[in-house]
Amino acid sequence: MSLLSSRRKLLAAITLTVLVLTVLLLRWDDSDNVAELEELQHSTHSQQPPVGTEHGTDDAWDVGTGRVKDSNDEQILGTHVDDDVDMDHVSTEEPQENLSVVKELPVDSSPPSDPEEEEEEEEEAPDSSSPIKTLPKDDAVEADSSLEEKEKPVPLIDEPKYLTFLPHSGFHNQRIAVQNAFYLAFLLNRTLLLPPAMLGNVFGWRAFNILVDWHLFHSKVGHENCAKFASLTADMQKAANMSNVCNTMNSYTYVRWELLYDLKTLKAKVSYLPRDYFTNEYLQDQFNISTNETWYFKDEWQYDAMIFDSNVDLDPKKHNLGKYHSLLRIPDLQARPEKLIYLGSLFGSGRMVTSTKENRSLHDWVNSQFIFSNPVLLQTLDNVVAAIGGPRTYASLHARVGDGAFARGASKVMNQLWSDFSGKFPPLPGGAIDPATPTECLDPLTRPEAVRNGSLPLIFMATDERNPRKAKLFAKFFAAYPCIITLNDVFDYATSPLAELSNPIDGLKLGKFMIPFLDGLVASRAKDFTTSIWSTFSMYIRFIHRDFTKKWTAEQKNKGVGGLRKRTWKRVERGDRSDDVR
Description:
five-stranded parallel sheet; globular
């Protein structure tokens, strides 16, 4: 028995020892995991985050469309790389078979919306059991969960207060968000920390924390040398051993909004400062704003909060929020004591709810300040318009069919465009006619008789279709109208002033990113403009067209000219076929 008892004691001792060692090993493993997590968080929020993807080929991956993009795409004119309908919030940056990943990016898996949805699509809710989020009256959204909770200090009365947000999606969606931000900053009496505009291969909406990470992953800090390769041909880049990281870096750029628009008048009314980077360290170093002095609204849906300018009921169920899931009130935001209010997305034409005529006028006035004013862009515009024949000597239309939802709904886009345009400018009886060459159309003396006598208009077509003359969807237009001009016919990027325009932030040549703007601006100088359905870019062209028409008409009136042109155009609009129209 004594021997059996001794064996039992020995076995118990061994078991206890194994248990203690197991616990110690588990604790050691946990400490490694914590250290790894802390290192990941540090690298995520440092000012030099890694590049999102490294490509195994010389082709740049188009973040906006999910397509492999030719490295010389900047030579292809009239290519719209932005996404006006915000249908690019679904990640399209999926790894290819030979795509080596430097650091995996956060990815959404929600499906894109049907293009027949309204302009600003509804996104998938993260939790189907909670279709509407109700915000409490105080602290509607907690501060960043990755930050240690600290008591928020009440700032001094004279201490400046700030507002900022996260940009996303195509350029014209970004512009709408910026306009909303200026309007909101004025009402809150806060200085807007204005994020840069993204041009080129951009990315769509994601939940707050993920969107911050995407901006950090796309930072160009530490990759400044990549810009020197951007102007080289693909063969020259290969010979120079340009890295795939640089290939990606050169497919997009961040610019300050002042480079595109004259915001001096706006700044006199609404205080703002440029915010060039998205790290917490940058906010601390540049503006002395710490994370515990920041109130975050971390959106979970693309259209999360509708913002009311009055003390409406906080219960979302008592309002017709449409696609929005919650609400914020200006008076509550005005009362926030924190130094910085940090919002997620501000995109959405219906996000700001105005209850007074004064606020509606203010919002409209803010929007009116965003008309392109870059002198190099405008100089190039004048050259192109002069080559066509001058302002208001042609009709124009915008055909957006190149990517995303527009490509999927291209037939509907073009059918509606045909209906709208041909309703204003009916084709000649008898069906198809032979189209003239661009050279013949650009010379008033060699244009087809129907265009010279005013029976049919000279047409400028702004489009993201790379070869519209050979595209089946465009065949009806080219068969019915003999003189349709595209940007390719009148613009050579390599010899234009745009080719020399550089971004002072990253050194990239900016001209290739501004070609879509030029395309739309040429359309805005026409006598008549026809829009594409669903496209905020089309709506923006229409806005600029109306602004230009008003100013041009006043200028011509002061000069006492334009009467004959007006009478001639009226005959074209009503379909007068008489040959005596000159």
